[in-house]
Amino acid sequence: MFMPLIFLGGLIFGFGLAFSHMARPEVVLAFLQFVDLGLLFVMFGAAAVTGLTFFLAPRLLEGAVLTGDPLGRRLKSFDRNVLIGGTIFGVGWGLSGICPGAAYASLGIGNLPILWAIVGMFAGAYLQGVWRSRRAATGPAATGAD
Question: Is residue 109 included in any domain, yes or no?
Answer without folding.
Answer: yes
